[in-house]
Amino acid sequence: MSVLDVFNLDGRVALVTGGGSGLGWAMVEAMAEAGAAVVVADWRGDRAKKAAEMVRGLGRRGLALSADVSKENDVRRVFDQIAAVFGRLDIAIANAGISGEPEPFPEMPLKSWQQAIDIDLTGVFLTCREAAKIMIPQERGKIITISSIHGGLVGQLEGRKPGYSAAKGGVAGLTKTLAITLAPHGIQINCIAPGAFRTSIGRGVFLEPQPDEKTKQVIEAFLRLIPMGRVGEPPEIKGLALLLASSASDYMTGCVIPIDGGYTAL
Predict the structure, then answer these.
(1) Domains, the chain, ordered by start
(2) Of 75, 103, 111, 247, which one is least surrounded by beta carbons within 10 A?
């Protein structure tokens, strides 16, 4: 087996939650390009369909499912359909999440906190739990969780999204604990912690062609803290996702890996 062969996903089945846009879309594309059939789950069914069409355009099987990962029944339905259609699951990427709106902490309503916890943390827990139910009998599998550098590595720049930071920090801790739980079953689980990427998350500040003065200040503050001097482009996450989804990472589990242009190296 050559070194390139260990990255081959031919014959494998991957799930990407939140796969209809942003980093999720890029990871869907990466899985398909490497040979996997891909299930795209997104709360926006139209986005899931477009991503699945892209997968089929690459010559792979693509299945689109509409689901809200904060709802237990939705998540169970996704995995029931995966089992019915494919009979197996080799890779689960728990990517679906929100960043929420920045709010001053003393006035932050409980519903804002709860929404971040429900989607960004509970949604990952449910995805990992249901994936494990399929993977444990197989005695193999790869689970990838998506945290953030603002979840256990550094504080959130403006300090106004405590729910997001708490949830993403929880994802990192959950990953490490599940790595210990699932290791005896031949399942590896690792976590990607992205920094600033050019996506719609975080109000899409890095997508603005002509940002207002306040948005400019936010962007400039981020760039001053990134040694590479720029934000990431979604395709730049593909290589790391493929590493963690493939046999190349068979001796890695419980890792939290930042991809941030050097932000956390400062």
Answers:
(1) 5-265 (3.40.50.720)
(2) 111
